[in-house]
Structure formats: C-alpha cells, structure tokens
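Example 3.2
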Amino acid sequence: MFCRMKRVKLILSLIVVMLMAMPATMLAQTPLAKYKKWSEGPLIWADFRGKSVVEGVPSYLKATLSISPEEYEPGSKVASYRLAAEAIANCELSFADIDKVDDQRLRYHQLQFDVLEYYRRRLQSELNSGVSGLEAENRLRHYQMLFADRVDQIAKNTNNGSSDSKLQEEEYLVRNQLEELGLPPVPVIHASNFSYGIYAGLGGVFPTSSISDDFSGCATFIIGLTGGYRRLKLKADISFGQPNFNNDNIFNVPSDIPGKPGQGNTNSYATYLGIGTSLGYTVLDTKRFSITPSVGGYWSSYGWNVANYNYVTEIDEEGNPQLVQKVVNTEKRSINDFGWMASIDFDIKFHKHVGDTPFFLTGQREEFTSSIRISPFVAKAKFDTTVPAVDGYIVGVTLTYTGIARALRLE
C-alpha cells in the first residue's frame, strides 16, 4: 500500500512538472519574426540570427526603411489605410559572432538603428504633408542613401564602434535629433472613388422563342473591362461561342427540285459573338459581397458558311438514274442585331492586396480586390434577314474572375 502511494505521488509530481514546462515548450516552438521594428524595443543579440558572410567582421546589422499601407478600421465599409514609414531590422540578414562581441558593439548597432529611426521620422513627416506615390518612393530611396552615408561616417568616427568616447558623442547627437523631431503621427489614406479593372471567365448563352428554332445554346468565353465612380459601374465585354444548328437552311433558299433545299450549312456549328455594354449601380456593398444590377445595350451576331446547291441526274453502277446534290459555291453569311440587355453582378470578394510599389499609370499605390463574379443576364434580339424572321431573348450567365483596382490617396 505504501509503495503504491509513493508511485501515485511520483506520477502526480511528473504531471505537475510537465504542465509547468508546457508554456516554455510552446513558446520555444513559436516561429521567430523575420523583421524587428524600431518601435518594438532596443536590439538584443538574439535579433542577429543570420550567418556570417564577411570574414573578420564580428557582427553586422541589416536595416532598411519601408513604406507600408496597413488597413485601418478593417470593419468599416470604406477601405482606409495608415500610410506608415517603418525602420526595420532584418533579423535573418543580420549576424553576430557571440564569442567576439560585447555590450559596446551592441550599442554601436543600436546607434545605427537609431539613425535609421531619425530618417524614418523625417520621411513620415513628408508623408504627412501629402507626399505619396512615386514621389514617396523617391523620398524613401533618398533617406536610405542618407542613412548609408551617415552610418559610414559614424563607422569612421568611432572606429567601427570601438572608441567609447566617440560612440557616446554620436549617441548623444542622435538622441537630441530624435527628441527634436518627436514622433510624427501616421496619416490615414483612403481608396479613390474611381475604380477600374478587368474580368474574364466562362459562361453560357441560350436563345429562346423562334431564335432557338435556328440555333442551340452554347458555352462561351468572356473577357471585359470595367470602371466606376463610387457605386456607379460601367462595364463592356465580349463573348465568343460555337452553337449548333437546329435548322440546316436558315434562309429557306429553294431549289428547282421541289422538296429539295437550295442551300445548306457547311459545318455543324456557327460562330456566336456577343458584345455588351451597360451601366449599373451597386445596391449592396460589404467587405465580402456586392450586388450590382445594370442595364445597357447588347450586340449579338451569328456567322457561318453556307453552300449553294444544284441537282443533276446521274446513272449509278446498276444503270438507274439518281438525283445527286452538287455544291455550286460557298459563301459567308451572318445575322446581327443590337438590342437592350439587363444583368445582375454578384461579386464574392476573396482577397484584397495593396501593391508594394506605385502603379506606373496612376503614380499611386493601389488597393487591388479579387472576386468571383456570377452574372445572369438577358438580352433582346431580332433577326429580320432569316426566312422566316426570328426574334426572342438571349438568356445567359457568366462566371468570371474579376480584379478591381483603386488608387490610394491622402485626403
């Protein structure tokens, strides 16, 4: 009994030790950040995680400036971003030989990082004054060069950080410069009211009424452009398909022989082309979903080749007369019509991204939204040149990938 109690106590003790060790174990398994911002605190040697690539150099700090739009108030309907300049140390490209460095060497690297923060604050002040787009990228490169020149000068003045007195002088100077600038606020930028984009995908068109007496439905490929201002949306697209024929003599051309057609289709399918343009208004627009009904015009066209026939009597191998159809010539035919159309776009938004550099056309960074668009539509069509004339509706649906871009601007 006594041995059993000791065994139970031993097991409980092991469980307690394991529970106490779990948080430390879990923390050790947490992936380390690749970058460290100046605002996250002073440098420590654990931030230098790269491999030494320069022989004879005990440590090296890789630090850069960046401009990163970060989403602001992500729950709001209107997309807005904080345009922040950042002073960043790249931990994976910074290295240190722990056996050859000391606290003074770490102070030297912290001084370098503080100098970068000084130029970051100057860059942030310019962003706050309205500098953006390509101009902001040029200013970033300018301050990065100033930082490199000053770091080189500090290295000469302090003998790469080995002179304690010179290091103290440089530290004092940078601290004063940081205090004079203070911490500038980070401005909020918004997506422009104007938007533009492209969409492409697949769909299907299905003629109704008497149009279906001549042509079947078919699958289509569609590509289009879109632009907009606030909730108003304008789009134009072109679709292509190959429907089968339901009528071999669409123009009802007779021949000299009763009951025989004077014309026929050379292929089993026609070429369908649909060009639509419409203006819409977004009635519902959330972070993940939008609905935009629209109306406009639609040009529909069917084109194909036909063969013109005549009939001759020929004697077969058994000596019997046979009526044989002969192709006289072939020609291209088409029917076209322009009518009204109506559609509804259902956009399912699945990704939003801000570009790393300004777009060359607008000179601004851009917010790019990707979505899957489902668009049922109906168009009126009437073809007077067929015999008899046919009319009805072209009913269709498309499934497309849609990319919409908006420039980011400082208000």
